[in-house]
Amino acid sequence: MRSARVDTILLVLLAALVIGGALVFTSAALGLLARGATHISSVVFNHLVLGIGVGLVLLIIALAVDYRRWRALAPYFYAFTIVLTALVFMPGIGFEHGGGRRWIDLRFMTLQPSEFLKLGTIMATAWYFSLLREQTASWKGPVAFLGALALPGIILLLQPDLGTLGIISFSVLAIFIAAGARVRDIALIGVVAVMALGLLSLTPHYHYVYQRIDTFFRPQEQNTLSEGYQIRQSLIAIGSGGFFGRGFGQGVQKFTYLPEPMGDSIFAVIAEELGFIGGGILIVLFLVLGLRGYGVAAHSTDLFGGLLAVGISTYLVGEAFINVAAMLGMAPLTGVPLTFISQGGSAMLVSLASAGILLNISRRRKGTH
Question: Residue 37: its pLDDT value, please?
Answer without folding.
Answer: 57
